[in-house]
Amino acid sequence: MTDRPLKQIHLAAHFPGVNNTTVWTDPASRSQIEFASFRHLAETAERGRFDFFFLAEGLRLREVNGLIHDLDVVGRPESITVLNALAAVTTHLGLAATVNATFNEPYELARRFASLDHLSGGRAAWNVVTSSDAFTGENFRRGGYLDRADRYTRAAEFVQLAREFWDGGSVRHSGPQFDVEGRLPLPRPPQGHPVVIQAGDSDEGREFAAAAADIIFSRHSTLAEGQAFHADVKRRLAAYGRKPDELKIMPGVTYVLGDTEEEAVERAAEIRRAQVGPQTAIAFLEQVWGVDLSDHDPDGPLPATDPVVDSALVQGRTRLGDPLEIAARWRAVAAEKKLSSRELVIEVTGRQSFIGTPATVAAQLDSHVQNDAADGFILVPHLTPGGLDDFVDQVVPLLQERGVFRTEYTGTTLREHLGLPVPGQR
């Protein structure tokens, strides 16, 4: 570190939605579709002076062997609809929705986000995602999916068109993906453009973020990995005439608090066991092995057979990589640490990032930001909707005491919270 001023930490709250991160069996777990749940988490985030509230997306229920995977599916309302409702019960908190650029059209999406930005007084954000998933595409009239090589081509053209619509005036565009002529029936949004978030980690995704995004939602939560990712993405900005602070890097992270370090570690282990029950462990194995493992003993060793490459057994989940390579790596870890199938899945799918007392967690978060491993964090709680309560009550005051997190909002728009410029009008 140098003698530069302390960097300010940016924080966002992620509403988990469909996944195995949330511990459904906890007595304090509540509905994932009732408005009261969204409102509780959003109001907690605003009480903690967070930058924004973040919703993921699920366009189709996941399936295993042709049946809906019922361990982690409880429904997911359409994101912008939820955020429009939250705009009425919050005053400063940014409102970010994940919406797919593969299965939508620029005019329609630009209008929805411009509407949210106007209704919220300049607090809208769009997390741009893409899909090459034919299974999800079956929900859409045109068969709805693209080859992987075309995903970012469409996304880049999509974002460009959306920004032209947000700028107002007549839009005339003819490109590889879109042929559009028209204009939005709205004034320019209060932020100029809603904040754009991107989550790709490939080289192509990083380049797209450097060219077009305001925030990158990364998965690199360790200090060394975060520093490498931070340096790589920030260095790409100059090629697009952008400064390093014009793109905020915010990894998705979890946390577990305890009165002592030992208590926090023990509690973290309990949460991981609850997140990866026997059936969830089998589901992860089936995702790699590509065969029905419903009769497999989760407390026994990994399957002895090799995975089936290009299996269609599991639909709607992101591929983890080459199944043969993953199986070989998992077997090596299981042999070295003498782990059962379930213990192995707990080991290799762990996402707990910060574990300790409130003081320890506050210090770790601050260290990551001051040492350029991140500009902030998107917190993914294991409990809905009360999973951020202890963080806001116990960690946020310590960050404020360190002088690295706001005690009050000083602006009204999300761009002001993030220290991002208002885009010039084209």
Structure notes:
The structure is a single chain. This protein is α/β, with parallel strands linked by helices. Helix content is 39%, strand content 13%. The protein contains 14 helices and 16 strands. The strands form 4 sheets. The protein has a 9-stranded parallel β-sheet. The chain has a 3-stranded antiparallel β-sheet with strand order 4-3-14. The longest helix is centred in the middle third of the chain and has 19 residues, at 148-166. It is globular and about 65 Å long. The mean pLDDT is 90.
Short description, anyone?
The chain is an alpha/beta fold and 426 residues long.
Protein traits:
426 residues; three-stranded antiparallel β-sheet; 14 helices; alpha/beta; 16 strands; nine-stranded parallel β-sheet
**Through-space gap between termini:** 39 Å
Spans of at least 5 consecutive residues whose pLDDT stays below 50 are none
Number of strands: 16
Alpha carbon gyration radius: 22 Å
Structural class: alpha/beta
Produce the secondary structure layout:
Blueprint: E1 10-15, H1 35-47, E2 52-55, E3 63-64, E4 67-68, H2 79-87, E5 94-100, H3 106-120, E6 124-129, H4 134-137, H5 148-166, E7 171-174, E8 179-182, E9 195-198, H6 203-212, E10 215-216, H7 223-236, E11 248-249, E12 252-253, E13 255-257, H8 261-275, H9 278-289, E14 314-315, H10 323-337, H11 341-348, E15 354-356, H12 358-370, E16 376-379, H13 389-401, H14 414-418
Helix pairs in contact: 2-3, 3-5, 5-6, 6-7, 9-11, 12-13
